[in-house]
User: Fold this.
Amino acid sequence: MTASTPPCPPAPRAAKPPLTPAVALGWLHTARFLTTAPRLDLLPALAHPEIAFVGRSNAGKSTCINTLTQQNQLAFASKKPGRTQHINLFSLGKQGVTDAILADLPGYGYAAVPLQDKLRWQQVMANYLITRENLTAIVLLCDPRHGLTELDNILLEVIRPRVEQGLKLLVVLTKADKLTRAQQQQALSVMQLQVGGGVVRLFSATKRQGIDDVATLLWQWAHPETQA
Assistant:
């Protein structure tokens, strides 16, 4: 009787490349337009992790998105703030394989927008933030020179139950270059107290401040399996 050949040991898994800001930024650079919709019910139901960018008009949301994705025209900044009234979705993923979604929600709070339009969009955004099943993280853009507005605080209250259940929250203090170093640290400390369980980061597209940190954080939140 011939001896049976012992089974070959499984091949070792290839080591995953370490996460670096370059990897995260390269991933964000893959952002490409997916769809746009004026209402939540017109958005496609998706299974990929979705990261939503929200903020009042003129808070620097479009600049932040375009800076992170290294695409000057990806997010549209209307010449009339508050008039961009669609939810825009962008797919993320290398080699055309989607592994996450970036959602750009309309800016809110601009005084020139009719009250009826304001109320309608507040309801649309609230519905999205409460019911969007694949929503993984929210990025709230805030100009630290003005702090949280009443509408920002309402938004934070709306999402609080989901944050307590594990939804990620990042508050990005835009235009940080407009503040002195001492003012930046004060704004950071105050915001961290105000948002509780959220993460707060300083950001300046002009000075390239906070870009690597924010990009890395978003990559980690969109790829939780890699953190195990």
Q: What stands out?
A: Confidence is low (pLDDT under 50) at residues 79-83. The CA atoms of residues 123 and 142 lie 20 Å apart. The domain at 21-227 is CATH 3.40.50.300 (Rossmann fold).
